[in-house]
Design a protein that fits this description.
406 residues; 68% helix; globular; 16 helices
Length: 406
């Protein structure tokens, strides 16, 4: 009998893994199709991020203090004109073409204080690929984005599987693989893809923590991923709060049942934080850059339009619609009927959460929904505090570090 049980388990596991492999292949096919269809430079902020990577790739040793070069910006602008960037931006092609990014200030901010992790990763990828020419490097970085996005999907699946089991995990992975805006972001040459992966790692390890698995390994992985995210992009700020809350929850739960394990876990958390701080002190200039970069989230300028009801509606609809499908530099929104359908589906899902009889639901699932809700609401709150209170608009891709729990 035990042999039959093991055989059934093997077949079931094999079937689930095969199904997930199919989801990965569907996702990969969609990304390859997007690469074939979407021209270069058609994802937000690609020229600026690529320019810094190209500059670093030409150096014998990495010098992060040098952030721009006129010649590199000029050749990128030439390529942008060749691939119709101004046409897709609904503007006439300037004549003569701008020589530097400073000549198109309304659209192209220059990378001056952005954190370094994505750029260093991209440079080593380019050197491994042997890419030297401008477009060769650009497409090599698209392949890097695809690789990181496939890993992101794996982490999302693993987190959902730990919390909800195989079927929900497979459904979650399929929804993410078929998500239109996430596919576009997943071929972008910018830091979004790396932050999305690090956010998915935090989700996966948080799921393992709340289900009582490998506590020390999970907290160390969460803190490490969060630290890397902090040195990658400012949109990772809510991950710091999420990681802190999950670590505190894990220690608190253990303290009730197993005080010794709780002390061990607390010590591991403290040691991980000390290691991160020690490594950060080795690069004081980059710490200063990150501090300056993050401080912009805390200015709370409270401009008049930030408290205007019309701005609130534009902020909310812009964030939501661009989270589902708004291609290019937000110049190609999906048809209104399609976006309205997405709004209604999300509304139904939220109402379903509110009116579910949670007492009748399996406790493990309740815990999983609570964790997913904490991830999504913390990120949404971070966007409101960092952008809305400063009267800035928000893009849906800023939510993608928590697209799994979302």
């Amino acid at each position: 009998m035990s042999v039959l049980v093991r055989l059934r388990q093997f077949i079931a596991t094999h079937a689930i893994c095969t199904a997930f492999a199919g989801v990965l292949l569907v996702f990969l096919f969609r990304l390859l199709l997007a690469v074939a269809v979407v021209p270069p430079w058609q994802n937000p902020d690609e020229p600026q991020h690529f320019a810094f990577v190209r500059l670093l790739s030409r150096q014998a040793t990495l010098d992060l203090s040098s952030r721009r070069e006129d010649a590199i910006e000029g050749e990128i602008l030439q390529s942008m004109a060749e691939y119709g960037w101004w046409l897709h931006y609904n503007e006439p092609v300037p004549s003569p073409l701008p020589a530097t990014f400073f000549d198109v200030p309304a659209h192209l901010s220059v990378v001056t204080i952005f954190p370094p992790v994505y750029y260093v990763t991209a440079v080593y990828w380019l050197k491994a690929a042997g890419a030297v020419e401008l477009l060769d490097q650009y497409y090599a970085l698209r392949w890097l984005s695809i690789a990181l996005s496939l890993l992101t999907l794996c982490c999302i699946w693993a987190g959902a599987r730990a919390l909800f089991g195989d079927r929900v995990a497979l459904g979650t992975a399929a929804l993410v693989a078929l998500h239109p805006q996430f596919a576009l972001v997943s071929i972008a040459v910018n830091a979004d893809v790396l932050v999305n992966l690090l956010g998915a790692v935090v989700w996966w390890q948080a799921a393992r923590l709340v289900t009582g698995r490998t506590a020390v390994v999970s907290v160390v992985a969460m803190i490490g991923a969060t630290a890397l995210a902090a040195f990658t992009k400012r949109s990772s700020a809510p991950l710091v709060g999420i990681t802190g809350l999950v670590c505190a929850y894990a220690v608190g739960q253990l303290a009730v049942r197993r005080r010794q394990r709780a002390l061990t876990l607390a010590a591991a958390i403290g040691a991980a934080i000390v290691v991160v701080a020690a490594v950060a002190l080795l690069v004081p200039q980059e710490v200063e850059r990150v501090a300056s970069y993050w401080s912009r989230l805390l200015r709370f300028s409270r401009l008049a339009r930030g408290w205007d009801l019309r701005f609130l509606l534009r902020f909310a609809t812009g964030l939501f619609d661009s989270a589902w499908l708004m291609a290019g530099w937000l110049r190609y929104p999906a048809p209104f009927a399609w976006l309205l359908s997405a709004r209604l589906l999300v509304l139904v899902a939220v109402l379903g959460l509110l009116f579910t009889r949670w007492r009748e639901v399996e406790p493990g699932w309740v815990r999983g929904v609570q964790l997913a809700t904490a991830f999504a609401t913390t990120y949404l709150g971070g966007i409101v505090v960092g952008l809305y209170l400063n009267a800035f608009g928000a893009q849906g891709r800023f939510l993608f570090p928590v697209i799994g729990p979302w």
